[in-house]
Design goal:
By secondary structure, the protein is α+β, with helices and mostly antiparallel strands. The chain contains eight helices and eleven strands. The strands form four sheets. Strands 3-5-6 form a three-stranded antiparallel beta sheet. A hairpin with a 6-residue loop joins β1 and β2 (about 10).
Amino acid sequence: VVEDRATGDTHPATLTIRGQEPFGLPTSVDDEVLMACLAATKKDGFRNRKIHIKPRKMLIDMKWKTDGPSYAKLRRALDRYSTVSVVSEGAYWHKGKKKPVRDVVGIIDRWQASGRDPITGLPHDAFFVWGDFMWESFKSGNLRNIDYDFWLNLESAASRRIYRFLGKQFYSRSTLSFGLKQYAVNKLGMSSRNPNGDIKRTLAKAHSELKEKGLCSAEFTGHGKNNKVVYTSLSSGLETN
């Protein structure tokens, strides 16, 4: 369910991510690459959809090793983001049109690697091109001003995904409540087969880290199907552009 920011009315919405063989769907490791791409785009001042990178430098920025297996992970992530599609039925808010829209979009339109790094033997140069929907979102100001270094130093994948998600949600409210199962599966990418107890244990570790670092506090409420997780912002660090 999505809330109309102007009227407060709600409407049903779905968001489906479709992968292609042989690459499949993005993983939590791929999230790190996507964030590095966002950081490179921010460093460029959001001037161009086409961003030139040095694979060795990106690996170093992500605190990965500069070897073949690490580059293979980087390559797989960019392959996946270049082939995945996102089907939105009213789940995206169009800032210019001021209403939810129906869209089938790509994340990265194209990426290419070339040359040979004399130190690592990896490709020396590369570039990627954001999909037009992503670029439109950047230009419309829908991308939060994420503190990439802070995000990079969060210990768990759950902490990182929660940090990214909550930053978009705290735009007008300091307290947020979500149905536990729907939130964990649809927003954080956890398996729908996980029982509530396992979900809570995973989230509790992330919540402790985020509270310790002054971002938000969290508590679980309700029972069974009425289980919810409630977040309260503790920091101006969770801001939107």
